[in-house]
Amino acid sequence: MSLYRFSGRTPVIGAGSYVSELAMIIGDVRISENCYIGHGAILRGDYGTIEIGPGTAIEEGTIIHAPPGGACRIGRSVTVGHAAIVHAEDIGDYALIGMGAILSLRAKVGGWAIVAEGSVVKNQQRIPEKVVVAGNPARIARSINPKDIEFLTGAKQLYVDLAHQYSRDGIEKIDSIAE
Predict the structure, then answer these.
(1) 3-class secondary structure for 161-175?
(2) How would residue 167 be classed by pLDDT, with cut points 50, 70 and 90?
(3) 179: pLDDT strictly greater than 70
(4) Fewer CB under 10 Å: which end of the chain, C or N?
(5) Given a cut of 90, is residue 25 above it in pLDDT?
(6) Alpha carbon distance 82, 85 (integer Å)
(7) Is the bond leading into 68 cis (omega within 30 degrees of zero)?
(8) HSE on the CB side for 102, CA within 13 Å?
(9) Confidence of residue 1 (pLDDT cuts 50, 70, 90)
């Protein structure tokens, strides 16, 4: 894994978490246990703090950055989809941030909320708990329902299991493919 100390700030990785060797974890980044940090993810705790709760998945190509002197807190069992950009202040437990979504400075997303793919949560915007938001800017589309809760809880275990598999089996670089 690519861990970098910056200005005396050192990342901390919890037990059972997988951080891809292709990810960059810089500075004051605190990753709890059983997390998955995917390939190409960049977590910059250079002048702020990033805290990631247990069982959370940060998928491939995601960028997370904390505001100067502030924190970006991501709760328990959150899924942040591929290529999302997160400058948020707080993402509540069990939330889902869709692929390509943007969470601007000091935004807050409530627990069990779903931010649809490609949505933009504006600077300091507040997303309540247990709603689905979509669009630019993100607006409430509906409340979550029992199928959403089933999906949110089931999908979380997939990434905990994947983190353990990657940690156990590793990845192997190959130079060529036999024909």
Answers:
(1) HHHHHHHHHCCCCCC
(2) confident
(3) no
(4) C
(5) yes
(6) 9
(7) no
(8) 8
(9) low
Q: What is the pLDDT of residue 121?
A: 98
- Written as six digits, the tokens of 68 are 């100067």
pTM of the complete model: 0.93
For the record, the structure tokens of 170 come out as 């590793």
Each residue's pLDDT tens digit, 39-52: 999 999 998 999 99
The Cα–Cα gap between 97 and 86 comes to 9
82/63 Cα distance (integer angstroms): 9
Four-CA torsion 140, 104, 63, 19, nearest 10 degrees: -70
Domains of the chain listed by start with CATH number: 2-169 (2.160.10.10)
Residue with tokens 């059983």: 34
| DSSP code per residue over 100-117 | T-EE-TT-EE-TT-EE-T
